[in-house]
Amino acid sequence: MRALVVEDDPDLNRQLSRALEDAGYAVDSALDGEDGHFMGDTEPYDVVVLDLGLPKMDGVTVLERWREAGRGFPVLILTARDRWSEKVAGFDAGADDYLTKPFHTEELLARMRALTRRAAGHTTSTIECGGLSIDTRGARVFIDGAPVKVTSHEFRMLSYLAHHQDRVISRTELVEHIYDQDFDRDSNTIEVFVGRLRKKIGTDRIETVRGLGYRLVDPVARPVS
Amino acid sequence: MRALVVEDDPDLNRQLSRALEDAGYAVDSALDGEDGHFMGDTEPYDVVVLDLGLPKMDGVTVLERWREAGRGFPVLILTARDRWSEKVAGFDAGADDYLTKPFHTEELLARMRALTRRAAGHTTSTIECGGLSIDTRGARVFIDGAPVKVTSHEFRMLSYLAHHQDRVISRTELVEHIYDQDFDRDSNTIEVFVGRLRKKIGTDRIETVRGLGYRLVDPVARPVS
DNA sequence: GCTCCCCCTGAACCCGTGCTGAACAACTTA
DNA sequence: TAAGTTGTTCAGCACGGGTTCAGGGGGAGC
Question: Would you say residue A194 has pLDDT above 90?
């Protein structure tokens, strides 16, 4: 678990970082808003402790920019007791929790744990097609609940087909999305993969459209042509 | 200890209630989602067993509404073996544990004990995965209750895998979350740690997904392919 | 019906990935 | 200082899997 501490008071910063390290986090720290913003923007943290009163760029602005840029890590904000309006602004900017100074490190740690755990259970997108379900995060494939072993490339290919199911996908389109750069065009790798996939998930799930490409379908839902 | 059983199959419902009563719980039961939701919303239960496939209101919705309303009791969800995605949705909605049908009542009782104990000793944030439990606070690991000695880095790694169990974690993601800043990218430290962890907690708990990374799984919950 | 071309399939090759044992370095503890 | 942990590196090995090739089958068009 990586944590970022953005706090301008050097003593408090060190104390927080130390506490988090002892709690098992890998901690980076920043002493002003600009540094903090940059670090949160470039490194994948699991949780962030963010003071709102910061030099160079205030905490609310930092948080707003992170959220605009799509950084979704949970953020716990620290506010002084008498700055009640800041707290509201912080929540509006996308904070997940807050704590007013002074506080006990125990309480901070408890809240951090809650945040990281909550974030851990987030969104798992599985694609369904007939009895076929594709767990894009776990890189697993199931047919009617039974796991199917697929290799990395097979999975990429099936995943792409599933994202565009019922559409005809040309060979070149598949190649472009499965492989990094250029690829030997006159090769039958794609066909081989299609064949292997058909063996694993059933012949009738991947239709071949002669001269055009392939199409992933739900075999039972398909009207008898 | 008060328990609520929400299960639409009358036979299974009675069987569960009976088993829990024998174990010393005061049990209420509901046969559909609406009743279950109302009861959980109005009575202070210590633990809830919730089937996901329910008439009138499905289990995930029930759970979501409870959590939105601030009901914090631990919830163990029951899923059919072939509804893998439901399990994930249940966790997202705030479930604490799950069990796939069919199951042994002994296992259900064991998990219930774990849940209530965890809820009782507040902030005992331990992550469970099969018989593997990870005490994030004490940095300790247990297999079926027996302590396992792991080093600091081993623990961080296992902890991260556990926070994202059933997800494939790439080597780089592991490195980024275990180590503070930069790290020699072409090093096989991760593999060595995986190997050592496997020796300690069992080979089948950490799956390697070739070309992608590793995945922490519950070895018993997974049906033999 | 015949032919061409596209597609499928089985097998083999070979490279990369990942696993393992051991040694080494850094650090802590007695 | 010596002994024991813990983290890291290295080299060798095994094998999984991506790629290629050759041959066969079957549509589509004439």
Answer: yes
